[in-house]
Amino acid sequence: MLDETLLEILVCPKCSGELEYRPEETSLLCHACRLRYNIEDDIPVMLIDEAEPF
Q: What is this structure's pTM?
């Protein structure tokens, strides 16, 4: 579970858009870029090269 304060400040590194937190998928989604950023050990992996399209 990610901290609420962290979720408020995180943005997509590609477009600076809002992210949707999906705790059941352990990921953050950017709907503008259609990218999924995985969360590993409660740490968001915010690297564009590591993001997965959805």
A: 0.93
Q: Among 8, 27, 26, 3, which Cα is nearest to 18's?
A: 8
Q: How far apart are CA 39 and CA 3, in angstroms?
A: 12
Q: pLDDT for 4-19, tens place per residue?
A: 999 999 999 999 999 9
Per DSSP (E only), the strands in 1-54 are 20-22, 27-30, 35-40, 43-44, 52-53
- Give the span between the Cα atoms of 5 and 20, in whole angstroms: 14
As a whole number of angstroms, the distance between CA 52 and CA 31 comes to: 12
The domain spans of the chain are 4-53
CATH fold label, 4-53: N-terminal domain of TfIIb (2.20.25)
